[in-house]
Task: structure prediction
Amino acid sequence: MQLRDLHTVYFVGIGGIGMSALARYFAGQGIAVHGYDRTATDLTRLLEEEGATIHYEEDVDQIPGQVDLVVYTPAVPATHKELMHFRRTGTPMMKRAEVLGLISRNRRAIAVAGTHGKTTTSSILTHLLRTAEVDCTAFLGGIAMNYGSNYVSGKSNWVVIEADEFDRSFLHLEPELAVITSMDPDHLDIYGDHEQMLDTGFRAFANKLRPEGSLWVQYTFESLLNLASAKTYGVGGGSVRASSVRVADGHFVFDYEDEQGKLRALKFPLPGRHNVENATVALAIARTLGATESALRQGLESFRGIKRRFELIYRDGKTVYFDDYAHHPSELEAAIGAARELFPDREITGIFQPHLYSRTRDFAEGFARALDRLDRVILLDIYPAREEPIPGVDADLVRRHMKHEQVIRGTKEQIPDLFGEDVPDVLLTLGAGDISDRVQPIRTFLESRKAVV
Result:
């Protein structure tokens, strides 16, 4: 298939963060974009404003008469009426990951993989490159606040791609440069166990690297890959490393060192040592592509973050409120740890919505350990996403593993009533499900309480 021959592309599940980036890419090529999604969201509304035609019912009558390519996500069940229609009619169909592979095959791809950290790392890297006038296109797994989008259009052959391990999607890529940020157990419903995830997932991805390419791996995971050619990075370790990490004037400040030398006192507004680590490998790649020290300093300081990645939602004299996509124990640890480092003497309240029955079953103990680090915990029901319920698996499974005595159980709809009379001091909303629907109501509540006080 030649992308230049396409006139109309149809997306089944167009509102997904990865799918919507592809939709923006095709629209930018002058191709008509149509699609289906289950519900209208900020992403789908924005796509419609940009010219896409979207409907929200499984209705084959709303499919345009001529479709050259159907792009779909594995999260949509095979029994979906529109997918079944396209199979019957023999319309060309490709998974989102296959299309990304097709787009990147004749480009110079930089693929950022990892069970967590890949969205932040790929977004930092994109911003550093563009600040340094190294032109690139980017397909991101979140809304980069500097660009207001998950898709950044460029004219050069360089393309930054967030490489997703779910459904082994990243094996469709053949990158010239690649990063593996982390390889913690995840998606065990797909892989079966951690060793299979490593073997048929990340090791296979590492072997897709082009012969002349370079791979950077977070140094604590190097032994899991057993690749002599991989470069390592990290905070306090690795051949590329950050050191002397500290907080000053609302920024994280750190020193950076690689084979080219040392950059001292770099300022970075994103909180948390995990984000310093993400910035470290982004700096390494940008330096490899010729970015100057002054451009890198400017890019780091001007990076505004990613929507739902420790995003500051509200702040007044009493309360600070952040929203974070964290849905794996390691991500919870990172978000809560960042809050503790920024506000060491303040009470931290976390609202956590578990994501997927299978992930809750597999990581209940890890979730419990992370949540025990909070001062107050509000634990919501599981967001099922693509899954059917699993007997015996609910949010109380996490609660039973916790040592914490201040745990409130409730539903998303009960927020902010679950706060009671105690307005949170430092508040985190945590989870990858529809907890994001409550962000604006919580902000409104906090603003109203400030007015009363």
Remarks:
- The first strand starts at residue 8 and ends at 12.
- The domain at 107-302 is CATH 3.40.1190.10 (UDP-N-acetylmuramoyl-L-alanine:D-glutamate ligase).
- The chain has a mean pLDDT of 93.
